[in-house]
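Z., the sequence and structure:
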Amino acid sequence: MELKKIDAQEFATLPNFDVEYEDSAYAGEMSEKAYNVLANACDDAQGGYFEEMLQDLYLDQALFAREMDAKGAFARIVKRLYEHGVASGDAGCCCNLANLYHNTSGRGSAEDYTHAVELYELGSDRGDTQSMINLGYIYYYGRGCERDYTRAYECYARAALTDTNPEAYWKLGDLCASGKGVRKSDRIAWQLYSKAYELAGKSPLAARAAHHMADYLMRGVDGVMGPDPERALGLYVQAEVGYYHLIDAGLTYYQRQLDQSIEGQRLAREALQKRDLDIRAGE
């Protein structure tokens, strides 16, 4: 797909600091706060500072999600900024533009998925690890194509080797845990989830790794460790808190995992109570 940069004449028509919100053509199409976000982003984009542009756009994730869902002027301008970034050679903008075409429900058009794959591949070639990971999701779920777990594995592995993105490690863990595309190995899955947890640090994304680790701790991993419901409980609680933050940021598809982490806490508490009763019975 051919994309054009935004020239000076077009930039003059977009939100900018030379025109007050009340005097702009966008006063009735978006909030003043949204206008100011775009003014900052456009200023960065015009200077070629695309990392800063993306940071400006996502500073208030709830506002960004709300305005993008409205599919009005804000969304049109954001898409145009992404296109400008891609045409200017930026890697991160490839992923962000691809995300607009990537319908995660699986109900997108064949043309949209083709655009998403093309942009993720371009971003991957430019070194963007999130593009590699999201391309993996395309193959993992078979969005616009046949499911291909082997290709999904290749995408996640490439991302893990390129950078320290925790998402790449927990997706590799998912494949090893299920045996899809690779030989099933709970031992290796545990190691990958543990690595993802370490890399995520205090980020809400640690929730995914914490959740998987808690599931393993409930049943143990042969040759590695026995069941440890006490540690599992702590990780389920951490996962729950992380999911709340992710959902608040607009990632509502984590609701199912949130419910599972809460149920995991109930099961972990039951296991702890049973262990305590068994200890008392043996006294």
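The chain has a mean pLDDT of 94. The CA atoms of residues 233 and 265 lie 5 Å apart.

Let me know what you think.
H.
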